[in-house]
């Protein structure tokens, strides 16, 4: 991000783009924002859309989100909110209220595995400042007393929240990148652009088709820490738009005394997850929901996560290791999608 989950778990999804044919104009924008990179590819049907103006609007949109949601900026709204040690109602932006509302739903449907109050644990393990270490159990136990989505009361209609525990800290990095993708996609559509691919730090949304009429093709990376290979290619045939987000344990981790610790922390135990699931890719109409679910399901593991995906009718690709072998498991909803 700075609020980029991909700065935390790096680039676990990337994309293939075919060359366009003559006819419709295909344009690209790219840049650096929120501590990561972004790429936009779109089909322009109107001469009224000026790329320079559009690029400026994209940059402004991402900068506005960053100053509200980044946990890596001391001057951001969420950082200021975390410094408020009070149990009084606090006003928040619509963005924060909306993200908390999504997170509460996903948390309730994932046995609490998506928990935005995990910040004390994330700080304790050193992932916030990339100074990773194994903490003492007593420190973990102390941090856990301040963790739990039930410690936040949300009034979404009035855009305000109440911290039942003044020491609660909120980390939006598991969900804000997807929100950013959605915001840029909405900007494009407001400009009349209906065929596009928006990618921010590996999270993306695609809509329509490429200029040559082909479907967008998304390549899911093989979840291995020291190589960049393709595990699977998904063709997206979705005129209404489709978000594709991935969360993984295999990029951001550290090793101590022969044991590997992932940055995906179970908010129930206060410790990094210890299962065989390596990556979760979610396809969803909304990138914010996709981003929330990929983290939740990854935390849950290959079995419990699959059950949650089935129960919530989610389109999900799970990649896990079975001994030295990588295996895939596809939810029933994703299996119905023609490839």
From TrEMBL:
Positions contributing to Mg(2+) binding: 174, 291, 295
GO terms for MF: metal ion binding; transferase activity
GO CC field: plasma membrane
Record has Magnesium as a keyword: yes
Cofactor(s) the protein requires to work: Mg(2+); Mn(2+)
Location(s) in or outside the cell: Cell inner membrane
Reaction(s) catalysed (UniProt annotation): L-threonyl-[protein] + FAD = FMN-L-threonyl-[protein] + AMP + H(+)
SUPFAM superfamilies, per the entry: ApbE-like
Record keywords: Cell inner membrane, Cell membrane, FAD, Flavoprotein, Lipoprotein, Magnesium, Membrane, Metal-binding, Palmitate, Signal, Transferase
Domain of life: Bacteria
Topological category with respect to the lipid bilayer: Lipid-anchor
Pfam family, one: ApbE
Keyword Membrane part of the UniProt annotation: yes
InterPro entries in alphabetical order: ApbE (IPR024932), ApbE-like_sf (IPR003374)
EC number: 2.7.1.180
PROSITE patterns (alphabetical): PROKAR_LIPOPROTEIN
Major localization class: membrane
Cofactor note: Magnesium. Can also use manganese.
Physiological role: Flavin transferase that catalyzes the transfer of the FMN moiety of FAD and its covalent binding to the hydroxyl group of a threonine residue in a target flavoprotein.
Similarity comment: Belongs to the ApbE family.
Protein name: FAD:protein FMN transferase
């Amino acid at each position: 991000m700075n609020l980029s989950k991909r700065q935390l778990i790096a680039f676990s999804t990337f994309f293939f783009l075919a060359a366009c044919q003559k006819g419709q104009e295909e344009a690209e924008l790219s840049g650096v924002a929120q501590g990561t990179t972004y790429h936009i590819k779109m089909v322009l049907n109107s001469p009224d859309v000026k790329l320079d103006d559009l690029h400026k609007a994209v940059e402004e949109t991402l900068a506005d989100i960053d100053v509200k949601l980044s946990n890596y900026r001391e001057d951001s709204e969420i950082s200021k909110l975390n410094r408020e040690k009070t149990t009084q109602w606090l006003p928040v932006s619509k963005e924060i209220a909306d993200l908390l509302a999504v997170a509460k739903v996903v948390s309730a449907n994932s046995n609490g595995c998506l928990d935005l109050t995990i910040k004390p644990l994330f700080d304790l393990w050193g992932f916030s400042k990339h100074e990773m270490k194994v903490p003492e159990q007593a420190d973990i136990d102390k941090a856990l007393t301040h963790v739990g989505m039930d410690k936040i009361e949300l009034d979404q209609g009035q855009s305000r929240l109440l911290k039942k525990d003044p020491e609660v800290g909120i980390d939006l990095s598991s969900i804000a990148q997807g929100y950013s993708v959605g915001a840029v996609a909405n900007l494009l559509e407001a400009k009349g652009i209906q065929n596009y691919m928006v990618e921010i730090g590996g999270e993306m949304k695609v809509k329509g088709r490429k200029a040559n009429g082909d479907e967008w093709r998304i390549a899911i990376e093989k979840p291995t820490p020291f190589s960049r290979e393709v595990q699977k290619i998904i063709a997206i045939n979705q005129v209404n738009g489709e978000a594709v987000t991935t969360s993984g344990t295999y990029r951001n981790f550290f090793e101590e005394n022969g044991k590997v610790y992932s940055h995906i922390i179970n908010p129930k135990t206060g410790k990094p997850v210890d299962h065989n699931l390596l990556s979760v890719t979610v396809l969803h109409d909304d990138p914010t929901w996709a981003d929330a679910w990929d983290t939740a399901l990854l935390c849950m593991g290959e079995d419990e996560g699959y059950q949650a995906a089935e129960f919530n009718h989610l389109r999900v690709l799970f990649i896990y290791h079975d001994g030295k072998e990588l295996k895939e498991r596809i939810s029933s909803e994703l299996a119905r999608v023609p490839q």
